[in-house]
Amino acid sequence: MSELSVKHLLGIKYITTEDLHLIFETADHFKEVINRPIKKVPSLRDVTIANIFFENSTRTKLSFELAEKRLSADVVNFSAGSSSVKKGETLVDTVNNILSMKVDMIVMRHPDPGACVHLSHHVDASIINAGDGTHEHPTQALLDTYSLRKELGNVKGMNILIVGDIKHSRVALSNIFALQQLGANVGVCGPLTLIPKPIVELDVKVFSDLDKALAWCDVANMLRIQRERMDKSYFPSTREYVKHFGLDQQRLERLDKKITIMHPGPINRGVEISSEVADGDQNIILDQVENGVAVRMAVLYLLASKIEHYENNG
Ligand code: CP
């Protein structure tokens, strides 16, 4: 198979296992490209991409922009704070105005779950979800699973734990879908107030004791508490949270094995992860960020090849 089954990347739940493997193979090629002295290829020379971010971002925004520039696309950036959305314009009207300037692809981050799916029904461009509320963050899951494969080889049969605020996390949901498609066993751990009950329907193991969960897993993906999505308190205090769910060196040393530590960022040092662990040799946090560029190049390249008028420059 040499093309994706989809025109948009709206979530991992909409793509196939074959799509995942095609993205990984293509990312391998681009990882080699971005490690060359000349990191740029002409593949998207005639493609215009708009990055529209209605929520803050450091990694995803920069990573997409770099990926687009490495592929020689024309790039425009738009952030909600400085846009006419503040004057009451709808999302579809805003995006259609951008598209009338001959934009081919939209990379969008939005606080509302389903915003990218909604947009894909109303505009004639390829949409890439860069995180929509608590729904999905597909390129984060792609770069996470790609990084794990690079670190450990095949993830099939491995026990992967996701720790923290599962309830408000789009990263958790996209990772669960991607890891299960690749044959991994997925567990989640956190205060039960931050683990949505329907998660058991996804065939996920639920832990409320971090030490037991760490004993089970080969990999622990630590998530931050998403206070910006909380309208009330879900645990007594940060101190309590750190005591029960914070990953520190002592917890790792009590294990009779060496596990791999991941974090999508941004990290809150001293809360979900101690500085010692965040800077230690068991984590692949910066590898995840580095691989994000190659993975996003792969997604952009593969989706651009599905734009009707566009002939891929190879
Ligand atoms: N991991 C992630 O999405 O980070 P940003 O919010 O900085 O993009």
Structural features:
Rossmann fold, 5-stranded parallel beta sheet, alpha/beta, binds phosphoric acid mono(formamide)ester, globular, 11 helices, single chain, 37% helix, 14% strand, 4-stranded parallel beta sheet, 9 strands, 2 domains, 314 residues
Structure description:
The protein has about 325 residues and is an alpha/beta fold. Helix content is about 35%, strand content about 15%. The protein has helices at about 15-35, 60-70, 90-100, 115-120, 140-150, 170-180, 210-215, 240-245, 250-255, 275-280, 285-305, and strands at about 50-55, 75-80, 105-110, 125-130, 160-165, 185-190, 205, 220, 260. The strands form 2 sheets. The chain has a 5-stranded parallel beta sheet with strand order 7-6-5-8-9, with helices on both faces. The chain starts with 16 loop residues before the first helix and ends in a 10-residue tail after the last helix.
CATH architecture of the largest domain: 3-Layer(aba) Sandwich
Secondary structural class: alpha/beta
Global morphology = globular
How many β-strand runs?
9
Supply the number of helical segments.
11
CATH class of the largest domain: Alpha Beta
Report, as a whole number of angstroms, the end-to-end distance.
16 Å
Task: Report the CATH topology name of the largest domain.
Answer: Rossmann fold
Give the ligands present.
phosphoric acid mono(formamide)ester
Give the domain tally.
Answer: 2
Strand order of the largest sheet: 7-6-5-8-9
Helix content: 25-40%
Q: Tell me about the largest β-sheet.
A: 5 strands, parallel
Low-confidence parts: none
